[in-house]
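Our consortium's second objective concerns turning raw sequence data into structural hypotheses that experimental partners can test. To show how far this objective has progressed, the report includes one record in full. It was chosen at random from the queue rather than selected for favorable results. The single chain below, 287 residues long, was entered without modification.
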Amino acid sequence: MSKKESNKRLKFLSDAILAAGIPFFGYFLAFNYEKAFCAAFKIPQELIEIELITVVKVTGMLIGLITTLWIVSEFLNSVKLFESPIGRLICRISIPVIITCIFIFLFDPPLYQIILISSFSAFLIFRFFIFPLLYGRGIKNYKKKVEYEINYDLKEDFLVDKFARKIGKNAYLILFLAFMLYISSGLIGGVQAKTWTSFTVIRSNPELVVLRKYSQNFICAPFNREKKEVIKNFIIKSVNSVAEEGSELIIENIGPLKVAEEKVISPQDLKKILNMISTALPPLCYL
């Protein structure tokens, strides 16, 4: 086999692998979307089931999101503010900062994660806007210092640049797009969980809200109408069992819902408990 025929064969195999991986990746994005939605209501991810309609829905939302971002980027490119190096830098840094804020708002991560993520955003701001003050001592104008630092970074080869050249431009773009789709699918799931207002309610005693429907099963939970809170006590009801019970299903605007906070012992209650223990211990010692 000649070298030319070998290259054609490798290209055919890579295209075939890519075509075969698209449906799998679509299901993966749908699972990531459902996982983010369920995480907002503390639903165990073991209950998630992916159906074809979910894949189509998530794909449609991602296409709409990408189209919107493309329109916004075209608009920003036409704005004179972002024609300068500093303007383009502000545009680049604002993206991770915005994603960080959305992540913290949606998923309410632990404090250490908030500190780590915020530190990364703070590092970017320090690196490009404060570091030039310390480094570019030979340049008097602050704007020129920042522009010099930006141009210096563009000339340098970083690990990402070397990786892109190693695997090729097209492969790098595909990986970057796949990563952005993965992030976007999770953000969409989280946003919908935090902002969804219309839910199916099963009129029973107690009333149950349907958070998700997988196959022929409803993932339900009791809820508080006044506080708009879901009680983390999930009940799985089949469609047939609901029909046999004769329960009424009504779509109501009861959201957005959130998970009821678990009761934590306050310092005052803890002090009372410790006082009770200290009072009860001396008599017990004589038993």
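The partners drew two points from this record. DSSP finds nine helices and seven strands in the chain. The beta strands are 198-203, 208-214, 217-224, 229-230, 235-238, 248-253, 258-259. Both points have been shared with the crystallography group to help prioritize constructs.
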